[in-house]
Amino acid sequence: MAPYEWVYNAGSSWAPLDQYTQSKIESLWFSHGACWIASPSFGGTTVYVDTADLILMCSGYAYTIAR
């Protein structure tokens, strides 16, 4: 499989997610799935990721994600 990187929109720039969160999102992406992930990128907070809509929700905020 080719290398990949998942990022989220952080204001006017894109920020990379940690490797654990990227791995979980990559698995979801192949099935257009959605689930809750305890993300180290967000201090271990549980975030909701929906790969069909390409969004990550954390503490009431929605972030666009991209591969």
TrEMBL record:
It comes from the Eukaryota. This is WWE domain-containing protein.
